[in-house]
Fold this sequence. Notes:
Layout: H1 7-35, E1 45-50, E2 53-57, E3 69-71, H2 74-91, H3 112-135, H4 141-164, H5 177-202, H6 214-217, H7 224-245, H8 247-255, H9 259-281, H10 299-322
Antiparallel strand pairs: 1-2, 1-3
Helix pairs in contact: 1-2, 1-4, 1-5, 1-10, 2-3, 3-4, 4-5, 5-7, 5-10, 7-9, 9-10
Amino acid sequence: MNLFHEWPLVIFTLxxxxxxxxxxxxxxxxxxxxxxxxxxxxxxxLKASGEGSHEVDAAPLPEEGAPGAMPWDQRxxxxxxxxxxxxxxxxxxxxxxxxxxxxxxxxxxxxxxxREILAGLMFLGLWAVNFHLDRRPPATxxxxxxxxxxxxxxxxxxIWSMARVYMxxxxxxxxxxxxxxxxxxxxxxxxAVAMAAYLERVLPLRFGFPDLSPATRSRLLPRPRPALLxxxxxxxxxxxxxxxxxxVTAELRSSGAGTALTNAxxxxxxxxxxxVIAALARPALxxxxxxxxxxxKPWATIALLLLLASEAVGRMLFYAVGATDSF
Length: 327
């Protein structure tokens, strides 16, 4: 069993799923902050307050392009586009003639592969539009809001078409609704935990605007970081159930091939879930002044690394087993 035979597809699918999941998490956090009373683009800006530290500036926002100020989600949103572009580029290495990849778009009506490529290009294009509008807000605010649902929908369609590519009657180990569920769960758990890890590192223990009054700050509920961790934990638990039930896992255990790797993936999922619980149990809102300077624990970051390793192992097994359906 060659685990690295389809390495371009492993990297491509994981990169895109992290990108789409992070994008959905960012849009979800924006929605939570908007519902809590923060109007766009005043979700909060990070201003460097010294080497290695950041604070949230809740004072009147500086003008666009002012030095030292940036939207809190600019960096992760930029990473979404970078991961998507890199993933699409790496996927071409799987083709015998990468320069002919554009020809696959000619069969959109019958091929899920063509739809996957089209959805990927749509997602990347809509991301570019939204990134531009974030940096230079339009005169009509509704224009900015109109592209956000389109971006989310394009991301969902991309993951849907990506999973449907492998749901083929000729590949019975892949042809299951569990494949679709697994791809979406990977997207959700990696995206949610990645954004929670980002918030854990760059923002104070309490997410929001530390300079605001307690009454104003109380409107910023639900707090995004615990919500993201809760979503990530639910997705991890669901992914563990899907993994145990998937035909690929059953084939691996019945044949004896890859059993150790299957067990290792399950242990990585469990370890990641435990660290997500540890991050979730950490207070998200503290009233004492020391909470502003206390160094955050990297539970969510470590959980992200374990979960990413687990999904990488699972994806390699998926391709190694499903491509042959026999040993």
